[in-house]
Amino acid sequence: MDVRQLTYFLAVVDHGGFTRAAEHLIIAQPSLSQTIKGLERELGVSLFHRIGRRVVLSEAGHELLGPARLVVRDLEAACSAVDNLRGVRSGRLDMIAMPSPGIEPLTSMIAAYARAHPAVTLNVDAAFTAEEVLDSVRTGGAEIGILGTKTPFKSADVQVLQLEQQPLVLIVAPGTDAFDGADTIHPKDLAGHRIVASQQGSLMRLMVDDTLAHGVPLQIVAEVAHRTSVLPLVLAGVGHAVMPSSWTPLAHQAGLRVVQISPTTPLHVAVISRPEHVTPAAKAFLEVAEEYAVHGGLALLSEDADRVDQ
């Protein structure tokens, strides 16, 4: 078994089949197929079930997936470490983020990181739940995860850095503002209002459902899984939306009013990473995250801009 075989195996998994994997690797598909067959012969097991033109991981393939990612990433880490001795910080950093933390604090941290390490390419995958983020970091699919939970995130499997708390706010639909210009509302004030809600299980939906459970007659007019649909729906006047405060700048740019909700319900945002064998690119990002946790996003960007000017 060698790293090339594992790289090809991961390409088939990540691209959903041999054709797209071969295109990504820029090799002929027969060559890719022969490499995978050779790996299966060496291991004595089938790694994929071939169903027509589709392939799905076998039980043995699932077992190999995590270790294969770690081996390939550790090799990348070794190459990066050698590069760093020559004063070079380049390569690729794989990350995964949930939607709201993916707006902030991720934007501020990436902006600071990109200025300090412009030769590193950042690849940010998307996840809807904290469990998806944890699984990706734990199995090596990503080195860095950004997640938001209703309570401070804890796990024995990964390193956790708490970044901030984002209180839930109400983004008010234009033409339907019946809150008399108030800067703060209470959940009971949503009585009779139409709400664009996120999917079941999110903190925002939990607050809406809890408000309904307390007898407040609000109406869920739309339920959307893709958070990118929320602001356009609010802007179109479909309904108000309960979202983390990270959405406030985008809402203001769209000309929407944002009000606080009392009592405050915070989204706890954290960065997670592997406890060991972290690449230099990932270590550098964690340093940026630590600065953010101490000083906050605006201070982080200001300090970074000062360093660039100098």
Report on the structure:
- With 310 residues, the protein is α/β, with parallel strands linked by helices.
- Helix content is 45%, strand content 24%.
- The chain has 12 helices and 12 strands.
- The strands form 2 sheets. Strands 3, 4, 5, 6, 7, 8, 9, 10, 11 and 12 form a 10-stranded mixed beta sheet that branches. Strands 1-2 form a two-stranded antiparallel sheet.
The total of helices stands at: 12
Structural class: alpha/beta
Q: Helicity range of the residues?
A: 40-55%
**Total beta strand runs:** 12
Q: Strand share of the residues?
A: 15-25%
Q: Give the helices and strands as they follow along the chain.
A: HHHEEHEHHEHEEEEHEHEHEEHH
Average of per-residue pLDDT values: 87
Based on the model shown, name its key terms.
24% strand; single chain; 10-stranded mixed β-sheet; 310 residues; disordered C terminus; alpha/beta
Short description:
By secondary structure, the protein is an alpha/beta fold.
What secondary-structure arrangement, pairings included, does this model have?
Blueprint: H1 3-15, H2 18-25, H3 29-43, E1 48-51, E2 54-57, H4 59-85, E3 91-97, H5 99-103, H6 106-116, E4 120-126, H7 130-139, E5 144-149, E6 159-172, E7 184-185, E8 194-198, H8 203-213, E9 219-224, H9 230-235, E10 240-244, H10 248-253, E11 257-261, E12 266-273, H11 280-295, H12 297-309
Parallel strand pairs: 3-4, 3-5, 7-11, 8-9, 8-10
Antiparallel strand pairs: 1-2, 5-12, 6-10, 6-11, 6-12
Helix pairs in contact: 1-2, 1-3, 1-4, 6-11, 6-12, 11-12
